[in-house]
């Protein structure tokens, strides 16, 4: 039940330390009032029949009694105690139990005009005494008067009544109780009998409007003395947990920025997104024509998130949870296991079932309760049916802001209807999302195939390529697409192109191998020739050697012969001649 | 908390029956209860006016009980008392309430149905 106070509300609180407040314990109401109703003063709640006045007042008392240990008195002018007890039992409030614990008193005041005559002066001291006795009996700090205007129906003397009401509110202030007074909405005025004249510290207006057959409950703080309060109309819910005010308009652009990346559940898509997937706490939009696999991509993302142990909320506006689980099983995703492990929660409702505000309110509430890390809205475009285009756009902005503030990664899908510009969303949120994936089908050779590309992805380098998106029993996969002379090739065209490329590659490889072999052969031949030439050269060399040796020996022989001839002639002394000869030879 | 009270008005009655009901038998004892809150001038006036009316019109067959809510605040809820002073005609049936200090005797008589409107 705890309320997480958003930044603006905290600031409101800080600025108003001086004015003591009584927390209502009602989700969201404390947030927009900056801490609750003015303590020790009366608060007026007005609204038309069925707007939820009694319930708001009742919850104020019950929460006070159960959560803040402030006993309360409920003075009922319309419904009897058993009726009231029964009415709020469905909200889990056990008034009998609280009454036993002396934390709660219901005093039913019955006014029967037909059995009352008036003669002369009177005052409402009886009412004061009853109220005083009830307050004293349990030491009440909170009082509800529901609906005190009924006095006007029972008593004739309006002059006395007005004076006494003024005295009553004064008296309540003197008693120091925090009072809530409910009043019926009047024509052109806040209340039928002008009670706002007397209760001027805090006035809250409840409204129940029906537009295009869709009803939305709204709450507005008309005035709150001494407090900076939200002035917008806030949608509220009445459900099994009671009253829920949704301060969805009090959001800004102050959300935390995360550097962490998370997988999209499709590894090749992660690769396309700078290799690491989406940024955490961003908004991802997948748009595309019918049947392109947007839901399948969302389911893959959810599956991956659950695998990481994150909590996921899946809002489906078209399919029931059972149908989603069955359909996703066909692409190999077992979402049921996550649902059983309480990691995944489905919420299916038709977009036309509630108004936009109510959708927002419900999403708000469920997100607060479940505290997910991932929220899927599938498809957001259908929300236009719940309102008009502009309202839906505003609602989406508020929703996205809210999810970002809660540090939730939002995954939205949007159907692009045929005939419209493709890179466009009906709901016009393309400019506020961080990552936009686009899916389309490509028609070629009598086939329709799916293709995906990243239209934008803030803050990361992403692939510029078109990929074929394949759904198989093993899951989602992305394949390369071929761009041929006739455009992008997908499906069997891609397969035949692949086969062709494979054959070409084989041929090229064989060609290359043959060339290598040729070269090797050439090399071998060349080497053989080189070897032969070398042999020849060696032989020639050897021959040349022999010749030169022979020439030398012949020379020596000739010289020896000449010496011998000289010796035999004995013309000169041998000795001198030999020396001369030797010297010459040495040179 | 809510005390069940006779809701005679709900039953359709003939004119004759209404007369009979509104003109109680002459010998019936009137049970009257006056709620006051403390001895205020208004309370005292109401009490005095009531006694005067009863002595004049119901001499010897009335019974007045005065309840001071300041002393017995818990008694206020029983007769659904809001305004002070309130005179409750417990008997004869049906229950009637007259708020105010009863200073207008004619209206008080009509209210008590001692005299028909």
Structural overview:
The complex is a heterodimer of chains A (587) and B (117). With 587 residues, chain A is α/β, with parallel strands linked by helices. Chain A has 3 domains: 7-245, Rossmann fold, CATH 3.40.50.300; 261-489, 3-Layer(aba) Sandwich (Rossmann fold); 495-560. In chain A, 41% of the residues lie in helices and 24% in strands. Chain A contains 16 helices and 25 strands. In chain A, the strands form 5 sheets. Chain A has a 9-stranded mixed sheet, sandwiched between helices. Chain A has a 9-stranded mixed sheet with strand order 17-16-18-19-15-20-21-22-23, with helices on both faces. A two-stranded antiparallel sheet of chain A has the order 1-2. The longest helix of chain A has 79 residues, at 491-569. Chain B has a single domain (28-112), classed as 3-Layer(aba) Sandwich (Glutaredoxin). Chain B has helices at 15-22, 41-57, 105-112, and strands at residues 30-36, 62-68, 86-91, 96-99. The model of chain B is unreliable at 1-6 (pLDDT under 50). The A-B interface holds A 80-81, 106-112, 114-127, 129-130, 132-133, 151, 154-155 and B 1-2, 9, 35, 37, 42, 45-46, 49, 69-70, 73-74, 76-77, 80-86, 94-104, 107-108, 110-111. Strand 6 of chain A pairs parallel with strand 4 (96-99) of chain B.
């Amino acid at each position: 039940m705890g309320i997480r106070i958003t930044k603006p509300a905290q600031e409101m609180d800080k600025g108003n330390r001086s004015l003591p407040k009584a927390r209502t314990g009602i989700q969201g109401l404390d947030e927009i009032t900056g801490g609750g109703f003015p303590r020790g003063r009366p608060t007026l709640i007005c609204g038309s029949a069925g707007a939820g006045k009694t319930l708001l007042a009742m919850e104020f008392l019950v929460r006070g009694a159960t959560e803040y240990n402030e006993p309360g008195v409920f003075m009922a002018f319309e419904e009897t105690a058993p009726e009231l007890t029964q009415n709020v039992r469905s909200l889990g409030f056990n008034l009998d139990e609280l009454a036993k614990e002396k934390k709660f008193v219901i005093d039913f005041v019955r006014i029967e005009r037909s059995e009352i005559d008036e003669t002369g002066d009177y005052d409402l001291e009886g009412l004061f005494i009853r109220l005083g006795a009830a307050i004293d009996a349990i030491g009440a700090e909170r009082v509800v008067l529901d609906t005190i205007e009924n006095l006007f129906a029972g008593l004739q003397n309006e002059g006395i009544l007005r004076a006494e009401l003024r005295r009553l509110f004064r008296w309540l202030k003197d008693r120091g109780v925090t009072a809530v007074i409910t009043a019926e909405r009047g024509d052109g005025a806040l209340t039928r009998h002008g009670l706002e004249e007397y209760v001027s510290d805090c006035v809250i207006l409840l409204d129940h409007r029906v537009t295009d057959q869709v009803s939305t409950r709204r709450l507005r703080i008309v005035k709150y003395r001494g407090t900076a309060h939200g002035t917008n109309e806030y949608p509220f819910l009445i459900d099994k947990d009671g009253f829920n005010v949704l301060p969805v308009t009090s959001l800004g652009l102050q959300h935390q920025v995360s550097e962490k990346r998370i997988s999209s559940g499709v590894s090749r898509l992660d690769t396309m997104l700078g290799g690491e997937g989406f940024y955490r706490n961003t908004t991802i939009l997948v748009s595309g024509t019918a049947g392109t696999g947007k839901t399948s991509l969302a389911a893959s993302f959810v599956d991956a998130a659950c695998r990481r142990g994150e909590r996921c909320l899946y809002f489906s506006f078209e399919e029931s949870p059972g149908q989603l689980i069955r359909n996703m099983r066909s692409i190999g995703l077992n979402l049921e296991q996550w649902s059983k492990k309480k990691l995944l929660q489905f919420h299916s409702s038709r977009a036309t079932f509630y108004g936009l505000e109510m959708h927002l309110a419900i999403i708000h509430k469920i997100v607060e309760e479940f505290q997910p890390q991932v929220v899927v809205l599938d498809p957001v475009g259908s929300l236009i049916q719940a309102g008009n285009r502009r309202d839906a756009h505003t609602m989406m902005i508020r929703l996205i802001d809210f999810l970002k503030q809660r540090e939730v990664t939002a995954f939205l899908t949007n159907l692009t209807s045929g005939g419209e510009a493709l890179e466009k969303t009906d709901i016009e949120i393309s400019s506020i999302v961080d990552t936009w994936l686009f899916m389309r089908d490509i028609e070629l050779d009598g086939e329709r195939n799916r293709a995906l590309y990243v239209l934008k992805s803030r803050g990361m380098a992403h692939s510029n390529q078109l990929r074929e998106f394949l759904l198989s029993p093993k899951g989602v996969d992305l394949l390369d697409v071929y761009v041929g002379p006739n455009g992008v090739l997908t499906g069997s065209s891609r397969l035949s192109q692949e086969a062709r490329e494979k054959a070409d590659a084989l041929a090229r490889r064989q060609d290359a191998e043959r060339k290598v072999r040729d070269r090797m052969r050439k090399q071998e031949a060349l080497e053989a020739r080189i070897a032969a030439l070398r042999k020849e050269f060696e032989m020639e060399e050897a021959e040349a050697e022999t010749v030169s040796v022979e020439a030398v020996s012949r020379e020596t022989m000739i010289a020896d012969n000449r010496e011998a001839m000289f010796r035999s002639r004995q013309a000169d002394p041998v000795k001198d001649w030999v020396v001369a000869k030797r010297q010459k030879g040495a040179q | 908390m809510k005390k069940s009270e006779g809701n005679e008005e709900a039953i359709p009655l003939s004119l004759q029956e209404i007369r009979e009901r509104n003109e109680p038998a002459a010998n019936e004892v009137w049970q009257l209860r006056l709620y006051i809150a403390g001895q205020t001038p208004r309370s005292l006036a109401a009490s005095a006016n009531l006694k005067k009316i009863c002595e004049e019109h119901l001499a010897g067959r009335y019974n007045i009980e005065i309840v001071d809510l300041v002393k017995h605040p818990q008694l206020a809820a029983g007769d659904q008392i809001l305004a002070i002073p309130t005179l409750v005609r417990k008997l004869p049936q049906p229950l009637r309430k007259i708020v105010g200090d009863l200073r207008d005797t004619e209206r008080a008589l009509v209210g008590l149905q001692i005299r028909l409107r």
